[in-house]
Amino acid sequence: MDNNIDRRTEQRLRYHWPIWFAQDFNGELAQGQMVDLSSRGASFTCRADDTCPYLGQQITARFSVPRYGEDDSFDMANFTRSAHICRVDQVNDFLRRIAIQFGRPLPFKPGEQTENKAQPDSDLVQVRSGNTNSAAE
Fold first, then answer.
1. What percent of the chain has pLDDT over 70?
2. 135 in a domain, yes or no?
3. Per-residue pLDDT tens digits for 71-84
């Protein structure tokens, strides 16, 4: 029986960029690889060693997120967030997957950026398909 309940309220952006984290940014930083991201949290993988965060730990994380423009271009937006470790999964003997919840959400929903752009494009297609004069010319 599967007891996993997906409580996500927004789509996640799946991408593989570095994430830097530490309990205290004055100490040594550890690196992980981002798996997915929403405005309220993220998951990433890291080495299964002493630098890997543990369940319930507070960390500070630094990461970049692609922010898409109207012309399908993107810039990287940089963020630093305090976060709470809410899940730790053992992937294998060498790797763990960490789920974090941000103390303060991002100012946009990374996984829903392209959906917002799709609506004007579909409106434009509807206007073109409804134009009967262009077919007669």
1. 77
2. no
3. 878 889 999 999 99
Nearest C-alpha neighbor of 10 from the set 106, 92, 90? 106
pLDDT above 70 for 42: yes
Structural domain containing residue 17: 13-130
**Which residues, at least 6 apart from 115, have a Cβ–Cβ distance to it below 8 Å?**
11
- Give pLDDT, residue 112: 85
What amino acid occupies position 3?
Answer: N
DSSP conformational letter for 112: G
pLDDT mean across residues, the chain: 81
Return all residues near 96 (Cβ < 8 A) that are at least 6 apart.
45, 46, 47, 48, 52, 88, 89, 90
- Considering only CA atoms, which of 57, 61, 52 is closest in space to residue 25? 61
Residue 1 placed within a domain: no
Q: What's the CATH number where 64 sits?
A: 2.40.10.220
Q: What are the backbone angles phi and psi of residue 93, rounded to the nearest 5°? A: -65, -20
How far is 137 from 131, CA to CA, in rounded Å?
11
